[in-house]
Amino acid sequence: MKRQRDTSGTVRVPTLLGAQGIFNVGFYAVVPFIAIVLAEDFALGGAAIGLVLGTRTAAQQGMFLLGGVLADRFGARSLILTGCAVRALGFGTLAVSVSWHHSLPLFVVGTVLTGLGGALFSPALSTLVALAQSQRETLSQSETQPGVRAPHRAPRTTLFAALSVVGETGAAIGPLLGAALLGWGFAVTAASGAGLFIIVGFVLTRLLPRTSSTQSEAHGPQLSDDASQESPRTRRSRRCASLHHRGFVCFALLHAVDLLSYNQLYLSLPTEIRRSGAGAETLAALFALVSILTITAQLPIARLARRLGPHRALPLGYITTSAGFLVLAASTTTTMPEGLEIAPAVAAVVLWILGHLMVGPVALDLVPRFAGNTKWGSYYGLLATAGGVAVLVGNAAVGSLLPLTESSSSLAWAPWILLGALPLISAALIGRTLPPHPQTTPAIPSQELSVSTHQEST
Q1: Helices then strands (H, E): number in the chain?
Q2: Residue 103 burial (CB count, 10 A)
């Protein structure tokens, strides 16, 4: 039967997970090859390539907060669709810049637009996933009675853990698809990415329903009985509520170390691979290991984190991440046996990923507890922006120290000790920022969609 447009005000969880997977397929089919194009087609040096890629990262990470605020203001559906359109425009601009008009400025504009598109739809998607998670937990609590076995057990893993698995699967498929298309030229690869996001955007216009104001009001308490009487200044404060929540700002700053640490897969790991005498094939194998660990270990680790609770899971995750850097620090003072030169790098990658898998879903699940009855978009935006700023600032500091690891300097351990100390600081302080555990799940704020956690029928 032909699928009709959903006008019930309900979006299904498989739609959200599928969107995340396809977003990552499209992104990783194009973006990993940008550096190659800059070097081969535009003859740029390493520093210039780094500047272009850094600009793209800044456009995405730095604009997440704005994307979250806009999602609160105009609705998650609108921002997701707008983000798809902007990313499609970005990929289309990349295709034009290397085909009809061989223009470096146009190419840079395209890279910035790809980042901006992600900044628009990512916080909005996180908001809908959080809404679905809250509704799952509310349903579980409402069906649990004292002395009666609940027909629906509380979810052992969160939807953010599932989102991570689906996203990593897309990230693994994307480069393979991009490499296959690259044989016809980067213009074809970029144009295909643009076409994919256009198709996804069109499909989501059908699957992400509009809803009436009455439906919206039914999905949560109003922020204030006097909301219509609020001054413009008060309304602006509500739209950037996350910036006025000191506890959450501290939490976001401390948790930013997770993204900084994860980003060392791209900055520090290649340096360690060179130091150990291995080549690009080893680096590729380690990236494959990252995907395998994420896909296979995320859900079991998420179950463990749920049992531990955030007060124990977050410090444990940060300490695990720190241990990976300390392994590399120790390796600079010892000589590894022949054939095991790469062992410290492998151990470090495993520890980084295990730590990341532990803290990532937990941090995302905590946002509704911080936000309470206010809308959540700006909170997810700030959490992502804090991580982006940490990467930009932290990588500058770490990058200046990394040459020490490839020399005979007595300070070869310095970058690893610095990177290892930061997660330990977060582990020690994060508990002080966490909100008290509610007796019930947080009240769901007014959103423009309700979310169904039931599987779609085929």
Answers
A1: 17, 2
A2: 15
Single-letter amino acid code for the residue at 24: N
Question: Cβ contacts of residue 228 below 8 Å, gap of 6+?
Answer: none
Per the domain annotation, does 455 fall within a domain? no
CB distance 118 to 87 below 8 Å: yes
Whether residue 25 sits in one domain with residue 109 = yes
pLDDT in tens, 245-267: 889 999 999 999 999 999 888 88
DSSP string, 19-59: HHHHHHHHHHHHGGGHHHHHHHTS---HHHHHHHHHHHHHH
Q: Using CA atoms, how far apart are residues 309 and 317, in angstroms rounded to an integer?
A: 12
- Report the alpha-carbon distance of residue 307 to residue 364 in Å, rounded: 16
At 183-231, the pLDDT tens digits run 898 999 999 999 999 999 999 998 886 753 333 433 433 333 344 444 5
Does one domain contain both 298 and 199?
A: no
Tokens of 393: 């600032």
User: Cα–Cα distance between 386 and 255 in angstroms, integer?
Assistant: 8
CATH of the domain at 163: 1.20.1250.20
Q: What are phi and psi of 338, to 5 degrees?
A: -60, 135
CA distance linking residue 54 with residue 67, whole number of Å:
19
Residue indicated by tokens 């790809």: 114
Give residue 271's domain range: 241-432
Query: How far is Cα 6 from Cα 139, in angstroms, rounded to an integer?
Result: 22
Calpha distance 437→445 (Å, rounded): 18
Task: Pick the closest to residue 174 from 285, 24, 19 (CA basis).
Answer: 24
> Is 200 found in the same domain as 94?
yes
Assigned domain for 257 exists: yes
Q: pTM for this one?
A: 0.78
